[in-house]
Amino acid sequence: MSIMKIKNFSFTYPGATAPSLKNINLKIAKNKITALIGPSGCGKSTLLRSMNRIHDLYAGCKYEGKIDLYDEDKKGFKNILNIKKENEFIKLRQQVGMIFQKPTPFPMSIFDNVAYGLRIDGIKNKTELENRVEAALKGSALWKEVSHRLNKSAMGLSGGQQQRLCIARAVAVKPEVLLFDEPTSALDPISTAAIEELIVELKKDVSIAIVTHNMQQASRISDYTAFMYLGDLIEFDETQTIFLNPKEKQTEDYITGRFG
Amino acid sequence: MNRLLLNKIVLGLSVVSALIGLGFLAWILLTLFIKGVSSLHFSLFLNDLVNGGLRNLIIGQLELALLASVVGIPLGMAAGIYIQEYGRGKYANFIRDLSDIMMSAPSIVIGAFVYAIAVKPFGGANGYAGVLALSIMMIPIIINTTDNMLALVPKELREAGIALGASKYKVILDIVIKAAKVGIMTGILLSFARIVGETAPLLFTSETSSYFNMNLSEAMPSLTVSIYNLANEPEQSSRDLAWAASFILTVIVLMINLTGRFITRNKK
Amino acid sequence: MEKIFQKLSLGSASLVLIILLGVFFTLFNAAKPSIDKFGTKFLVDARWNKEVAIDGIKSITTQQQTIEEDEITDEDDDIIDEDDEEIIDEDDTDELDMKNTQTVFGGLVPIVGTLLSTFIALIFALPIAMGIAVFLSEIAPKKLAVPVGIAIELLAAIPSIIFGMWGLYYFAPIVADTFGGYQVSLLTAGLVLAVMILPFMAAITRDSMNTTPDVLKESAYALGATKFEVVKDIIFPYSKTGIIGSIILALGRAMGETMAVAFLIGAIYTIPDKITDPTISIPVAMAVNFGEASGLGESSLFYLGLILFVISFGVISFAKFYFLKKAR
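Output (structure tokens, whole complex):
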């Protein structure tokens, strides 16, 4: 079952003459991990960032096609490219969360960081906040390390801890989809392993799309893989197939390292 | 050989230049210290100018600067936020450039402007005009510092806030400003130090007064304007008072300036 | 809430434009009587507050004779008495035959004073500021560069009026002893102005120099260049525009300096014969005369202010747009 269906999707950056994404057709499966791989400049981050419309922070980008997101309430798909109103954008981002390459702890306490999404959603009840923050931190394997210092600044955490904090923060609002944009490329191997383990754990509650320039990571953790090149989706299939039995020559060349 | 000698000479001259710069600083501070301290006594802080003291002048100057800050800081920060966070292209850049230019504009011209709109039509010197003139001087400086400090905040931080579903103004207030907090604080302190030492904008707006006065609808006592007047008087006692006032003014200005720098240094 | 916040911040930003326009139009409006009366002749007329026989004003086209009432209250030129020279209040307001005279105002002397004092300041400040910048940027080790840099910036933080006090009582006598002439003079004012703009110029120049990529400098050193050569051939050319911009910007600021110059330039409405003679500048003219001026006199002061505003706006904009464009 798909949680998100991307159909004939093209994207052009503001002021650009040619589209960065051309006619992408892709499905994000529910409770599975879908990896987007490809060499630099292939558009994988651009595609990911279209899924929560974060591009719209910067005026002038052009969309074509559809990105349908499954709406639990309406039991049907809604095209998120049609969103125009502020409150709809907010709702979208509460459904589709994002974790960035660089850990982005807010300049506030650990507790306030994780509670941030909950507070702006209007949750004020202290007990509820505490419970949800604890659950989120447990869900990101961070609780043991920070439970005694929830009121200390988040800036005091290590890189790996900060990234797990960002994951906890995103998970706290109970999104349906989580988008990871190269989440471990700024981290050391041990933190990377911890986060990969975490992401695999998370998929039972959320559907995941992850951009990675590390092929091995994609083959380790993902269920589906999409290989992209210069704005085109070259091949999309189960991860096993992509890595062991790719259908396109370009895919095979990339996987085997003929080009990077 | 020749090259090396030339190098040594030029670099030596450069060191000399630095010494000259430092020398002037030391000379001025030393002068202030010697002349100022010798004229200092406690009664200066207890009496108003009419009785040979400086109390009303110090309080008046601080009051004017504080009120100007109350006006200038929110307006300047809001404008700086607009330029950095909301502005798209031409208008924002235009305002940014205008503000930069205004930062270096002659303060006496601002004084003349405020005189024309807030003193002449209202029948004479008043504190509101003085506050207005100082605010006009403060706003571009605050805009500049807010703009620059906000620009240093990485864009990922904003994106992370938006990605959680926060609306833009919440991201700005809760996250971005907080992240730039220390730098902005320094900028505010530095600009306060600057306007508290200004004379020209007050010269014919709020002028000065020998009496204790907190009433903004009249002339307000000003440390800087009074220094100017006192220095022009022939009596030695006036000059001594001017030196004492100069010393106190400089201490105030430099203390605030150094405090502003200190908080940034600490946080780095 | 979001909308309100956006509107508020936009409004605040627009305030800058509003203030700028307000200043310009208010000055223009207040200067208008003087502009109408004297036109562009104002820029080249050296007479200030002079009674002239009506026949004597041949070059001024007047559609109507505006007869000035003789003010019994003198325009007080606050001139600082100092020990050596006694400068006499120059206003003679005798009761002249009201039908045959007019008061004429011309801005040439303050304008020339402003330009000359600024020019003198620039000449003296430039080499020292460049030297300081080179010291801070290339010579001083980190541990020294930071405190020295802060000290230089503190020099910039000292209020203008303090420069006036120190300049008048401590610096001016030395200038007079060294160069002869009056203590309160164009030269003294120019020199103190130089000290005032020094730190500003040095700071901007240093920042420009610091933008030179290390690799560029290293390439030159690797070829065996001396430090001076690297500065001269690599750093200065690279940061050329920033340096020139800093100079012009400092010029713009020096032009508008009021209090220090008021203490030191003498406030005399005559074009100096020698550099060590007293004269006046636009900001000083305004500072010193505004209190008691009225009518055409006040209007002429606004005219001067308008001229100063336009010139400094032009100079600063020029510096900004041609030389100090920051990559955004």
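The CA atoms of residues 37 and 214 of chain A lie 8 Å apart.
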